From TrEMBL:
GO terms for cellular component: cytosol. Keywords: Glycosidase, Hydrolase. Pfam families: IU_nuc_hydro (PF01156). GO terms for biological process: purine nucleoside catabolic process. GO terms for molecular function: purine nucleosidase activity. SUPFAM superfamilies: Nucleoside hydrolase. Residues 7-311 form the Inosine/uridine-preferring nucleoside hydrolase domain. It comes from Cohnella xylanilytica. The keyword Hydrolase applies. InterPro entries: Inosine/uridine_hydrolase_dom, IUNH, Ribo_hydro-like. This is Nucleoside hydrolase.
C-alpha cells in the first residue's frame, strides 16, 4: 500500500502513548520517520526504553529510529504520573530491556533536521509535554512553516483538567513550552482531554470485546494499560482512556473529527492555581469586548469525534485486520 502519512511521533511513552505508537507503526499506509521521547508521565530514560520496547513488540525493531529528548521542563521542576501508569509506565509489567538503543542525536535536533529535509511532507503527532517541540522551534523557528500539520494532544476546551481542576497534564507539566508552540505559527490541531473523555473512553462491552482478541498486540495493549484502567475506575472513569491514540487515529483518518473550530488558544503560565490552563476563545464576537487583543486564531480545536469509528480502528489494529479500511 502506498504511503499516505509520514509522521514524527513525540511521546512521553506510557499507557496510551503505547497504543498511539502501535497505530503509527502498524497502520497500513503510515510511515513513522522517527519517534522522539520527552519526559512527562515518567522519566525520560524510561520513556525511551518504552518507545524502543513498543517498536520491538510491533515487529519494527531497527526500522524506526528513536531519539531521546528533553529530560525536564523549560523552567519548572518535573511533575510525573507513575501513579497512573505504574513505575515503568507500562502497567508495572517488567518487560525485558529492548535489543536496540536510541540514536545519539537529541530529539529536538532530529526534529529540526527531518523537517528541513522534508519540508511540507511531515506531520508531527505530539502527545507529551511540548518541550521537544519548543526547543526545536527555538533552534530553528522556520520549522513552524515547514510542518504539514502538528497534532497536539493537550489541554481541554471548556472542560475539567485531569491533574488540576483546570489543567490537562501535558500542558501543566511544561506550560511555557506549550505557550511557545501555540504562539509559534505552527499549523496546530488540538485534541483535548475533553475529546478523550467524551469520545475515546473504551469500557463496558466494548472493552470486553477487545479482551477477546487473542493476538500478541492485543495482549500487549491490555498489559500496558492495566494500571491506568485501575486508576480510572478509582476516579470515576469506567474504561481505558485513549487521549493519545484518538489523536493519531484522527491524523490517520481525518473524518474521525466530526466537528472543530478555528480559535485562539492561550496557555496560562502566570497563575499557579491555573497553571497550564488552555483558554480557548470560542466567543462569536470577541472584538466587541474591551479586553480583546486582536490576536488571530492559532489552532484548529477538535470539538467532537466519532467514537464508533475510533473503536473500529482500535479493533482493527489489535486484530491486525485492516480490510474494513482497505480504501485508504
Amino acid at each position: 500500500m502506498q504511503t499516505t502519512k509520514r509522521l514524527i511521533i513525540d511521546t512521553d511513552t506510557a499507557g496510551d502513548d503505547v497504543t498511539s505508537l502501535l497505530f503509527g507503526l502498524l497502520w497500513p499506509g503510515v510511515k513513522v520517520e522517527a519517534i522522539t521521547t520527552v519526559m512527562g508521565n515518567i522519566p525520560l530514560a524510561q520513556c525511551t526504553v518504552n518507545a524502543l520496547t513498543t517498536v520491538e513488540k510491533a515487529g519494527r525493531s531497527g526500522q524506526v529510529p528513536v531519539y531521546a529528548g528533553c529530560d525536564r521542563p523549560l523552567l519548572r521542576p518535573l511533575v510525573q504520573a507513575a501513579y497512573v501508569h505504574g513505575p515503568d509506565g507500562m502497567g508495572d509489567s517488567g518487560f525485558p530491556p529492548p535489543s536496540v538503543r536510541a540514536e545519539a542525536e537529541h530529539a529536538a535536533n532530529a526534529i529540526v533536521r527531518l523537517v528541513n529535509d522534508y519540508p511540507g511532507e511531515l506531520e508531527i503527532v505530539a502527545h507529551g509535554p511540548l518541550t521537544n517541540l519548543a526547543v526545536a522551534y527555538m533552534l530553528d523557528p522556520s520549522i513552524a512553516g515547514k510542518i504539514k500539520r502538528l497534532w497536539v494532544m493537550g489541554g481541554s476546551c471548556h472542560f475539567r483538567g485531569n491533574i488540576t481542576p483546570t489543567a490537562e497534564f501535558n500542558f501543566y507539566v511544561d506550560p511555557e513550552a506549550a505557550r511557545i508552540v501555540f504562539e509559534g505559527g505552527f499549523p496546530i490541531t488540538m485534541v483535548g482531554w475533553d475529546v478523550c473523555c467524551r469520545y475515546a473512553l473504551v469500557g463496558g462491552k466494548d472493552l470486553e470485546a477487545l479482551r477477546a482478541i487473542d493476538t500478541p498486540i492485543a495482549r500487549f495493549y491490555h498489559q500496558v494499560n492495566r494500571k491506568a484502567l485501575e486508576f480510572n475506575r478509582a476516579n470515576g472513569l469506567e474504561g481505558v482512556t485513549h487521549p493519545d491514540s484518538v489523536t493519531i487515529a484522527m491524523c490517520i483518518r481525518p473524518e474521525l473529527m466530526l466537528r472543530s473550530g478555528r480559535y485562539r488558544v492561550e496557555i496560562e503560565c502566570q497563575s499557579e492555581a491555573n497553571r497550564g490552563f488552555s483558554a480557548v476563545d470560542t466567543r462569536p464576537a470577541p472584538e466587541n469586548t474591551p479586553a480583546w487583543t486582536g490576536a488571530a486564531p492559532n489552532a484548529e480545536v477538535c470539538l467532537e469525534a466519532d467514537y464508533r469509528l475510533f473503536y473500529r480502528m482500535l479493533t482493527a489494529m489489535l486484530r491486525g485486520d485492516y480490510r474494513e479500511f482497505a480504501n485508504i
